[in-house]
């Protein structure tokens, strides 16, 4: 009997079969990732996002292991702590043929080890007979490849597609092929190594005989290829070693953190592993892809914020991000791609639809904030590392970014950076809250015309101040003075035009007629982070961020409860994003609100404790926190997501008041605080230039003390309390 039946276009599990829950397991390496169910399969039920994807195309849309034509029973499904290997432990139910018991339950153990390396999924299936009698059975792999672009999988309709080509079947392999409308031939080679096997265009059958206590291992590879990029096949063990080498290098470079709280350590370790998995090696250095499944590709804004979050523990990641962004900075006008000289891109997509222009994201520049954030990251990278040689290499790119802000970014020359999409296929909203309905007035009406987002003005303010710092280093003192004067003028005009006294915070934006969108919003925390808020408004902004309408006990709502479009289940109008909360925490810390910052860290920690693997998702719903109950998850949030994984590190740094001044060879802890759940925190391998320190900070009733456990090289450690 089939475990799964089809009725019309829907698939259902038959009653009596084991149905796993809807959770997925994720593997990623480079430009290839897999979304599998807990059994290690790509099933025909669920939301339809499962598959093996390579360069924006789903190369495997069905992958199902059967034992004597039955789905095995799940015993355990675990990801290695570093996210490199998925291990699935299985057995079988009683399997009958008529009245005859062919395979007793719990006698056969099947262990799947699955890893992705390069563009290949490797699976080892170890089968062990734990009965006292010989076992004879068949292993079957069902497979299919629909070669759908990831935007098709997400729901985009295409009027026509390319052509499926005849399947090439050999004695131990099948090659599924597709020629896209872009004339690229994509293929999926399924290679099964077994003793007695038959392979067809849809399945591979392997006959197995095991004596009592005997084991056998089947090895399968799924290779994703196109006719433009060659791939290298390895053994399963070689693939594991390749991934391990990358992880070892990542761990050698980064700072290591341990606390008194084991659950907090689990959160840190999971976040670190997620960042490793999402980071791809590029010709320009390491680069964190945004998230799986929908955003496993380079994004500008996401990578910059992830780099800012993790700069203190892993500066090499920031260097890779800056180098990549400098290499892809726009040099020409292209309204379709929304490209303008000096602008930093929003996202880069591979895949058939991007190549054909069916979506505008092949190299898409429709973002208003990535360009000033690029300048901010460059300055912070220099302060953290003192790497003047690299800064000199990208100095021209920094100057081009400032030039874009002053020219294309401000077409009406009112001093505010604004956006308006250049074609109907681009993003309507081009800040980080990029849902179509995310910028609106207090009466619920959409903001129309060229939009000047509040937090973006803060980014510009910080970018000009930081560019001025760098200009002085390079001897361009006149330009530095000009930049500082422009920043002062922007701060004055911003506080005059954006402050809305009746809501106790800054408008989320000005519309095309320069009318403020008087809506309470989380972006005000970003403003604190940049330093653009005048002292007279800081207290009220902090109070509004931390009141019960905005801070729900878990994190900061994107839009405060009570606003007309508030919806805790929406993407951007009342949900909670961990990276957003982390930036708010950094902003509060900047102005001395350490207690409030520790509350945000404690809230996010509590969220992680309710989630499997302590993995924070892209976002979750903004419902009120109820004691003893978990937060409500957003159903299609990406997990893992890079800037969600980076949030713990930014919040920790902010609570510790940790700052770097490479030009002074100084590391400072200014008014550090720790939440009650953490009694001490150990920081090891914290580097500045050639110097390295290990230190421990301990929580006391009234303050936090610090011991320097090891110091090598020329660096000064300063504790200000």
From TrEMBL:
Residues 368-604 form the Mannosylglycerate hydrolase MGH1-like glycoside hydrolase domain. InterPro entries: 6-hairpin_glycosidase_sf (IPR008928), 6hp_glycosidase-like_sf (IPR012341), GDE_N_bis (IPR032856), MGH1-like_GH (IPR054491). Residues 27-218 form the Putative glycogen debranching enzyme N-terminal domain. SUPFAM superfamilies: Six-hairpin glycosidases (SSF48208). It comes from the Bacteria. Gene3D superfamilies: 1.50.10.10. It holds the Pfam family GDE_N_bis. PANTHER family: ALPHA-L-RHAMNOSIDASE SIX-HAIRPIN GLYCOSIDASE DOMAIN-CONTAINING PROTEIN, C, PUTATIVE (AFU_ORTHOLOGUE AFUA_3G02880)-RELATED. This is Alpha-glucosidase. It comes from Gimesia maris.
């Amino acid at each position: 009997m089939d475990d799964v039946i089809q009725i019309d276009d829907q698939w259902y599990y038959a009653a009596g079969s084991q149905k796993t829950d809807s959770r997925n397991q994720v593997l990623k390496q480079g430009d290839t990732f897999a979304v599998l169910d807990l059994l290690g399969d790509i099933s025909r039920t669920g939301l339809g996002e499962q598959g093996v994807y390579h360069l924006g195309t789903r190369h495997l849309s069905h992958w199902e292991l059967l034992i004597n034509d039955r789905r095995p029973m799940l015993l355990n499904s675990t990801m290695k702590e570093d996210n490199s290997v998925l291990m699935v432990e299985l057995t079988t139910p009683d399997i009958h043929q008529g009245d005859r018991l062919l395979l007793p339950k719990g006698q056969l153990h099947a262990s799947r080890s699955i890893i992705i390396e390069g563009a290949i999924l490797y699976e080892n299936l170890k089968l062990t007979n734990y009965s006292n009698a010989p076992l004879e059975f068949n292993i079957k792999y069902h497979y299919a490849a629909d070669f759908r672009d990831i935007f098709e999988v997400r729901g985009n309709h295409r009027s026509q597609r390319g052509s499926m080509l005849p399947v090439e079947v050999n004695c131990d392999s099948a090659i599924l092929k597709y020629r896209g409308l872009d004339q690229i031939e994509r293929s999926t080679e399924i290679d099964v190594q077994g003793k007695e096997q038959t392979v067809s265009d849809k399945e591979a059958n392997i006959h197995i005989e095991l004596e009592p206590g005997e084991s056998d291992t089947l090895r399968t590879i799924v290779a994703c290829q196109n006719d433009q990029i060659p791939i290298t096949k390895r053994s399963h063990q070689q693939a594991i070693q390749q991934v391990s080498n990358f992880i070892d290098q990542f761990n050698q470079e980064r700072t290591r953190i341990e606390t008194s709280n084991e659950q907090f350590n689990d959160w840190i370790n999971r976040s670190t592993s997620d960042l490793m998995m999402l980071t791809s090696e590029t010709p320009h250095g390491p680069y964190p892809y945004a998230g799986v499944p929908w955003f496993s590709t380079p994004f500008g804004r996401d990578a910059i914020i992830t780099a800012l979050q993790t700069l203190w523990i892993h500066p090499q990641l920031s260097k890779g991000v800056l180098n990549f962004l400098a290499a892809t900075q726009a040099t020409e006008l292209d309204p379709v791609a929304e490209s303008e000289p000096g602008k930093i891109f929003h996202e880069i997509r591979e895949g058939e639809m991007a190549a054909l222009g069916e979506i505008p994201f092949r190299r898409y520049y429709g973002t208003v904030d990535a360009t000033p954030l690029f300048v901010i990251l460059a300055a912070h990278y220099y302060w953290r590392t003192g790497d003047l040689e690299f800064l000199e290499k990208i100095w021209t790119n920094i100057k081009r970014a400032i030039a874009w802000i002053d020219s294309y970014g401000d077409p009406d020359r009112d001093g505010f950076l604004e956006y308006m999409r250049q074609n109907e296929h681009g993003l309507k909203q081009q800040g980080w809250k990029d849902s179509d309905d995310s910028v609106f007035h207090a009466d619920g009406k959409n903001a129309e015309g060229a939009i000047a987002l509040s937090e973006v003005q803060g980014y510009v303010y910080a970018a000009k101040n930081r560019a001025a710092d760098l200009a002085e280093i390079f001897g361009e003192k006149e330009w530095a003075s000009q930049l500082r004067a422009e920043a002062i003028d922007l701060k004055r005009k911003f506080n005059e035009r954006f402050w809305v006294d009746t809501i106790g915070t800054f408008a989320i934006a000005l519309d095309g007629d320069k009318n403020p969108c008087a809506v309470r919003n989380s972006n005000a925390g970003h403003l604190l982070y940049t330093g653009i808020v005048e002292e007279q408004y800081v207290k009220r902004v902090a109070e509004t961020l931390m009141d019960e309408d905005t801070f729900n006990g878990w994190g900061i709502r994107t839009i405060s409860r009570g606003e007309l479009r508030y919806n805790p289940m929406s993407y951007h109008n009342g949900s909670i994003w961990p990276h957003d909360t982390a930036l708010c925490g950094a902003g509060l810390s900047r102005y001395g609100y350490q207690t409030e910052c520790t509350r945000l860290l404690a809230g996010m920690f509590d969220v992680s404790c309710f989630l499997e693997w302590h993995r924070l998702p892209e976002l979750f719903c903004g419902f009120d926190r109820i004691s003893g109950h978990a937060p409500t998850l957003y159903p299609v949030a990406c997990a893992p997501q890079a800037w969600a994984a980076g949030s713990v590190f930014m919040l920790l740094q902010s609570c510790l008041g940790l700052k770097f001044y490479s030009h002074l060879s100084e590391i400072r802890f200014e008014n550090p605080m720790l939440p009650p759940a953490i009694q001490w925190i150990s920081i090891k391998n914290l580097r500045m230039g050639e110097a390295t320190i290990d230190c421990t900070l301990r929580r006391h009733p009234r303050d936090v003390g610090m011991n320097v456990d090891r110091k090598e090289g020329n660096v000064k450690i300063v504790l200000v309390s």
